[in-house]
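ESCALATION

Customer reports they have been waiting on this structure for their group meeting. Please prioritize. Original submission:
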Amino acid sequence: MKLDLFVQKTSNLQLKNQMYRFAVIVIALAVVVNSYYTYKFLNEQRIVVIPPGGLDEKVSVWTGGGDEAYLKMMTRYAMGLYLTYSPATVRNQYAELLSLYHPASYDEGKTALYDLASKVEISNVISVFTLSGIEYLNKARNILEIEAKGVRSLYSKGQKLDEKTSSFFMTVIFENGRFYITEVKDVEK
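Update from on-call: job pushed to the front of the queue and completed.
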């Protein structure tokens, strides 16, 4: 850069240094602003999810949660795996359901689900759950308690054993945009 505005060389050097300082300050401010907005948008980023088979409406997930359509879809999926089964499918369904469990509660869930699977296989019972309603309760910033209401029918050898209106509570955590189950409990009405 050649700046010869002033007669003295020191004045020209001072002007060059001031311009360099100004350029460094502008670049530093641009980096700080860019970093702030990158962090902000990263945490507010939403992902559009379209599962195989499609959806009736668009769903989105972000770092600390998901919209209502996503919660309904995941609740239907988890409750279907948990409550609609036959002795031939129960182990595979519970293995798939365990993939949704949070690592901290995986061992507890595995024990409970495989004990239940053993009882189903021994008793040769078929369960069908018809979902009638879903309600959500925010317990904390990224923790939800989901209540799934419906009618559960049990069959054995083609005969209806029981039909009850039941509510199932599922505690869910969102971590890094992922839906994790921590607990599922049954409340019969």
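Sent to customer with the following note: The longest helix spans residues 9-44.
Escalation resolved.
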